[in-house]
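Thread: "does anyone have the structure for this chain?"

Original post by V.I.:
We have the sequence but no experimental structure in hand. Need at least a predicted one for the grant figures.
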Amino acid sequence: DYDAEAVTRDPATGRLWLAWETTNAITRHAPDMTLEREARPAAMQGWGINAGPEAMVRLRDGRFIVLREGFTQWHDSHRHRALVYSGDPLKPARVSEVRFAGPARFSPTDMAQLPDGRVLVLMRRLVWPLPYRFAGLIALADPQAIRGHADWPAHAVARLSSNLPVDNFEGLAIEPRSDGRVTVWLISDDNNAVSQRTLLWKLSVDPRNL
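Reply from O.Q.:
Generated one for you, tokens below.
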């Protein structure tokens, strides 16, 4: 009954936080993955069973952002509820709700912070009819643009379309390089399905061009 969808880390302590979709919970773990604490934030309890917290990042200023996979309403095609914590969500911290406004018909699946403070958000869309397949893109958003209960905008900077195979991409990590570029890692989830694969992509990105 558990489905860990996101993980983020404090580089100073090595602690990790996991977001769990089915139970709409967040857990904190020691560097060796020993469970320290679990919470089910009240603000996430209406997020649904299969549409809950899908992406989470700990920003370098100590804030946490959690994005919901599902749209805010059934007829909405680009807004997702998001929580912004002033600190560790497992401790007393101020929390505010915003609306993450990304490209239409795509849902966030992971996010990570660039060296310049902006964040890349991995997004996915199921494409019909059968046989179903996945479309993916990477969006860019700036935490400095978060304002109260207003929309937090993001725009697409890359579409996952090439001669490389595309699948159910759900994981993103950013690795800084000494030349100013970053390595962006993407990984897909095969869901134990015969029609899906676990794929790993390695991309070279110059944040100055985003």
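V.I.: this helps a lot. The mean pLDDT is 93.
O.Q.: and The two ends are 39 Å apart (CA to CA).
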